[in-house]
Write a structure and sequence with these properties.
about 220 residues; alpha+beta; 5 strands; globular; UCP028451; CHP02453; DUF2461 domain-containing protein
Amino acid sequence: MATTIPQEAFAFFKKLEKNNNRDWFNERKPEFKQIEAEVKQFYNELLKKIQEHDEVDKLKMFRIYRDVRFSKNKAPYKTHFGGSYNRIKPKLRGGYYLQIAPGDSFIATGFWNPEKEDLLRIRKEFELDATEINDILNDKSFKNIWGAMVGDAVKTAPKGFSKEHENIELIRRKQFMFIKKYTDKEVLSANFMDEVNTAFKSIRPYFNLMSDILTTDLNGVSLID
């Protein structure tokens, strides 16, 4: 099984970026399918490693074909590989994502687009007490790997919350994500899979807290059977 990313993946995407049309791609589709199969093996091997320390469902690999119906960019193909691993609901929340692209490879974790009810529950928790989340965000080893939380936020305060609240920077968030970028050299290295898995493993304190928040009410009573 493939435990490294093939260099041919970057070479193919660099050429595709300059020739993003169906004729060019169809002529080279067998080459792409071979590269895709190797990369998918990598993603599946990473899945096994994640399952040693977390409960995640099957890998979801995203197709190379772009949905151009509502996009100004009409290029038919993506120039990256992407795959996600979701933690098993309802007990566990959050997920992992890995993108492989020339000059734009990264991993991402957290909550990209929480449902309306979940978003309100998170905000209410941070309004009540943000001690635990701040302890995680300010942990030196955590910050060394993931840096600061990223994502969109409302400009002032969500409806029903005070813009003067001491935790408003957390409350006004709409997304609660972490992103870690990698160079092409790092992606092609022999230890890349282990590096990614270590980073994913280090996010667990955050996932544990958020899962606890999203499966209980403000009194700590479980919302799941």
